[in-house]
Hints:
By secondary structure, this protein is α/β, with parallel strands linked by helices. Among the domains are: 1-39 and 439-499, no CATH class; 44-129 and 267-420, no CATH class. It is built from 13 helices and 20 strands. Helix 5 (171-189) runs parallel beside helix 8 (231-257) and helix 11 (371-382) runs parallel beside helix 12 (398-415). The two termini are 20 Å apart. The relative contact order is 0.13.
Amino acid sequence: MGPPPQGLRRRLNSLVVAAFIPAFFLGGALLAGCASRAPEPPLYPPPADGDKDPIDWWKVIEERIEPLAHDRGERWPLILWNNGGYDPLGEETVRMLLSRGITQHIRLHPSMIPAAQALARAGSPVIVMEGRSGAWPYPLAGDPSQWAHRYAADADVPEAWRKLPSPTLFKGWAEAAGRLRRTLEAFRRAGVTIDAAWLDYEGEPRGASFEAAKASPSTMALLPARAMESKRAFYRFRRQLWMQLVSTYVAAPIREVFPKASVTNWMASLSAPDRPVLGWQDQVLPSVGLSMFTATNPVAYGIDLYFDHAWKEDYPLDRDHVDRLYTHLLLRQVSDDAYNRDRMAPYLKSVPWVGRWVALDRDKVTPVMSREGYREALRHLWLRGIDAMQVFNSGASAELEIGEVEDTAAVYGEMLAFRKFLEDGRVMNFDYPGVQEGGPFWSGLSLEREAVVRVASRYPATISLEPWEGRWITLAAPRGGATYLLTLTEGGIEATEAD
């Protein structure tokens, strides 16, 4: 065993940990009686900036984010939804970003080749991230008769339905794949290797209308009868079809040209009947074969849609209970996906989107997760088998956006102290707290005789774990959390707590 990561302090075996627990609770009680607690962070997000000026992200990152204290090795850097643009960067700027665990991403267009070349020259992986929405790529087929629902001229249907794609007409997808191959070949001829394509293709048929399809004789003739038995059946069908189309016509061409590329798409995840991945309104995401994707892309957003759905009037509207709800939300898709990957496809990687606050309804003010709660959730995500993070810094204020990047980068830097576990460890726990559970919870990664474990609780507590079969240890779970390195010895388990 090599030296422990920087910043580790006292070494405790399991007996010492058990003896420490009474003093832990006594100390907490004494402190509670003699000192006031720090003020809680605000319950609501900062006000929107209105027409805010663009953020100079490269300057913000240089001035407000500390360089990494631990070597990133070959691990992916973070990428940001909003970054400093797509102009080619100087080598010094790219290295500054990498030193903080971040890089610029590009889009799949030949105009991005100079930016990609600049990234590669400075030692950065070339990562593509771009979005598509709406009817794309169906209209690439040309005349609407080749891709849209068809109705009789006098049919009493909304005019907008006549411009919606018929889900199983694929000529537009084939055209998109051809264009994509030509773009990828242009990158290759220019000497650029695309290392990753983490995409956000959210268009049709993901949101296809059941009613519009049902009313179109031409579409009904092409759809499986069982898929049209109900809205629920159609929801399952359209989501599975959407993922297969992106896999076939987008992921496959990327891997044809760049066989080693990491490829995923928004919300791609492994869901199973006995361990379903849930959406923001607790809807079950149907089982989907990820086919040509090399990684899943679960979403860990603190989003207002879920708060409005899940919050109950009898919950105390305070910082603690709001954070409980969002902690549950941020952990659940990643954890359920990780559990299913471990059972069904352990070769798949995972690259989640993360975000402290996503407001779909900006005319309404909804409570937000605290920055402390967000950081704690991120620590647990890293210990549940993920390989990278995409930061959805899309807030209505600069304070929100910058804070999300600061927090995500800080936790990434912190967790790199345990890089060997991130690279080779097995996930130890796939469970996560319920919507309003406040007791201790934990996450961890194990090697043959070592493990790293993060414990957290809303109040001082203890938690007993069985990191290795038949070997138990009890750890203190202080308010604010703690990280432990565990070592299996002949006499039991040693625990080292990190600062």
